[in-house]
Amino acid sequence: MTPRQNRHRDRAGRGIPEATVARLPVYLRALTGLQERGVATVSSEELAAAAGVNSAKLRKDLSHLGSYGTRGVGYEVEYLVYQISRELGLTQDWVVAIIGVGNLGRALAGYGGFASRGFRVAGLLDADDAIVGQEIAGMTVQHTDRLEDIIATHGVSIAVIATPASAAQGVCDRVVAAGVTSVLNFAPVVLSVPDGVDVRKVDLSIELQILAFHEQRKAGGPDGLAPLAAGDAPPGTSQYVETVEA
Amino acid sequence: MTPRQNRHRDRAGRGIPEATVARLPVYLRALTGLQERGVATVSSEELAAAAGVNSAKLRKDLSHLGSYGTRGVGYEVEYLVYQISRELGLTQDWVVAIIGVGNLGRALAGYGGFASRGFRVAGLLDADDAIVGQEIAGMTVQHTDRLEDIIATHGVSIAVIATPASAAQGVCDRVVAAGVTSVLNFAPVVLSVPDGVDVRKVDLSIELQILAFHEQRKAGGPDGLAPLAAGDAPPGTSQYVETVEA
DNA sequence: GTGACTTTGTGCGCGTGTTCACAAAGGCTT
DNA sequence: AAGCCTTTGTGAACACGCGCACAAAGTCAC
What we know:
Structural class of chain A: alpha/beta
Oligomer: homodimer
């Protein structure tokens, strides 16, 4: 029974690899940059350089969308912008709600990258009465009591969670129950959601920790400079231990 | 010549896969949560659930750090916290400078996740005279003129770039020239850096676009509901085209 | 001390993603 | 119109990561 566990998503869908999807927005940004500079056509080599990827990878990525290049010439910038936008679903508007208007929520509310790509912020919500009613980026902060109301009224399909970690799962449950099927989570917790709901996570602290790892590696590794062997300090012998018997 | 192009990084290093490194901070957070609740030992199954991963993957990840579990029992929480912290380089302090004190920079300056993991913010810098001198999160914003000075004086090794896109590459060049070897970039541009410098990128807009793609897929795909065939609209026939000859 | 039980650590097969290298295809020159 | 040159699109090899499934290893009960 259950020969394979591929029930979590259609997986094959129409067949664009996840890794490719993650790069399409990068290509799109590079292309709009070229567009603004008046460039009409671009080769895979040039575009790949602008996007910071290998040119063969770029071509294979684009080939998943169809054959939109001209051999010997390259890709027409405007055409490619349209095709990628369409594939990503940016030719239609997406309605977003931002929950949690702390420092981060405020930054998100004022972020220009949302509106410019077809994302419309339908509401800023917070549970703190001291914040509710404030005017942020041209919008009035509303109380989270109205969450379900706002989601239904504006047809919100994407929720951005910028609450403290302790509130995130509760908010997530509510937005999912209200019909939201995509969540962008900035709270430092692992959200659990039912099948069919997509969650993406952005975690500032994790990125820094990854950098710290590589930084340490460059400096000689955790054992490189310190006179400790790998696998040093068995339990009960070092200063960090408190609850272990001696 | 150049039989393989693996000069960009030591790659093998001491051999912890990149995917594992990216998950260690997640495990660490789950572990400190358990620690605060007074849990002394945890099985791979429990910890994996808390971190949102497969238990076999968790065990394999931890096995790269060494054999720190006890069969039949599990892992000692406190010991594991220490080992992961050490591997990630969090047992030492990292000095960070935040460049760009707009909405996002402000949010970062006030973000608790930095200080709690051994990241010390040595300076907030901005090029705007209207912002320089302001007090943010207990620190006085300084002018970017002093960038090199501050990096040298405080021994900054990680730069966080939260400037507008147009300023990011310039700032990046300066911090790298001043000796910084790790950069966390929030600006929506592809930074180019010399070999030996690590760049990690956080892009809010890209995450949203990826969500939009999946959301559209759930709703029937770009061609699912619309009556367009895949490969529709050859050049010169649709309304978006302006520069193509008819 | 012995046996049953629990949980780790890992060998192995599979799928995904990346890169090289080249044939196919189109434009441009003469 | 023919051949050269540029660039795409892709086949094939390779590298990487994931997850199953199981043997090894340790604990706990009696």
